[in-house]
Design goal:
alpha/beta
């Protein structure tokens, strides 16, 4: 399996399996349960703490809104990686690819790479606002 990864990007190996399900409703139910468990830990916006960002909060609420803007097939394909992405955000110390967008000068985009237990390569994108310092999980997607 060939994977094109930037030289500066390191790969995090997760022990969490991909969410199984034969149809969209099964996957949505499992993702919703995982999300509710994380959200039940706080009274406000759901977040996870990231080792890479020195235990700072990474908010995960906008991620689900972003996923449901896409078509169903792509949404299910990405949501199957939700638990893997949460594990990566929580535990990785690997260096991401850092992108400074000239059109959005107040945002920094971090792109992490990971491999699931079933050897599926996936990417996680986290956006940081330079002014407020808030970090938000933006996207999760498999290599192909």
């Amino acid at each position: 399996m060939f994977c094109y990864i930037q030289d500066t990007m390191e790969i995090y190996i997760t022990n969490v399996p991909i969410i199984s399900g034969s149809n969209a409703s099964e996957v949505f139910r499992k993702v919703r349960d995982s999300f509710r468990y994380i959200a039940s830990k706080t009274k406000r916006r759901p977040y996870v703490r990231s080792v890479y960002f020195n235990k700072e909060k990474v908010f995960i609420g906008p991620f689900l809104n972003h996923m449901f803007e896409k078509n169903w097939r792509d949404t299910v394909r990405r949501l199957k990686l939700f638990d893997c992405a949460i594990d990566l955000v929580r535990n990785t110390r690997k260096l991401p690819e850092v992108v400074h967008d000239p059109h959005h000068i107040y945002d920094i985009l971090y792109k992490f790479c990971g491999i699931t237990r079933g050897n599926c390569v996936f990417f996680v994108q986290i956006k940081e606002n330079k002014i407020s310092g808030n970090k938000t999980l933006i996207s999760v997607y498999p290599e192909r």
